[in-house]
Amino acid sequence: MTDTSRAEYCVVACAEAWRGDGEILASPMGTVPSIGARLAKLTFAPDLLLTDGEALLVADVAALGERPRTVEGWLPYRQHLSLAMGGRRHVMMGASQIDRYGNQNISCIGDWARPTRQLLGFRGAPMNTLNNPTSYWIPKHSARVFVERVDVVCGVGNDRAVGPYHGLRRVVSDLGVFDFATADGAMRLVSVHPGVTVEQVVAATGFPLEIGDAVGTTREPSDAERRLIREVIDPRGLRDKEVRA
């Protein structure tokens, strides 16, 4: 198999966020992260726990939009919160704005008293970021999203963090992959997707971005991973609606 799409590179990058997590609940939000979590479980992270998105722990990996066939257990809301608050969950959320320390905004744009745009609201972002590992998926990388200062802090960044389970792992966008492995916890460019340059990423980022000595290229999925993505997990190609070439 050849001609890996940009969306498929993003899927692999999202999957890698859960590498080494062990038996932990994956909570992917968005099409590409959902494919990534399923890919991780089918390949290098077999102990990863998946849900049907509601109240069931599932043993099999169903294609997007299909019901799982094998149920492992019941996951009521109280138990879900228990996992989330004890560090046994790794969530991958979205962000309408994110800054260099990983503070996330999904509530509103503009002044809190008179916002220009009303968004989702805080939802579970504060608890997620303070109580369990958190990564982010941003399908359209731009300086309007990667901002110097978020208008409202929903997800808590490294400059505000408290609690033993706070941990920002990865940010995956349609341009590249980022982590926070710097002395002050600022965002760092780890890799760019094929066809993207470091200069493009810098130009599309609204804050000074930490750049290592050797920025890599996001790894390509193996033939087996491409087959799983295309034939088993996402045969309808929904990933290409979220990430366009």
TrEMBL record:
Descriptive protein name: Acyl CoA:acetate/3-ketoacid CoA transferase, beta subunit
Annotated family: Belongs to the 3-oxoacid CoA-transferase subunit B family.
Alphabetical UniProt keywords: Transferase
GO MF, one annotated term: CoA-transferase activity
Record bears the keyword Transferase: yes
Xref: PANTHER family: ACETATE COA-TRANSFERASE YDIF (PTHR43293), CHOLESTEROL RING-CLEAVING HYDROLASE IPDB SUBUNIT (PTHR43293:SF3)
A Pfam family annotated for this UniProt entry: CoA_trans
Gene3D superfamilies: Glutaconate Coenzyme A-transferase
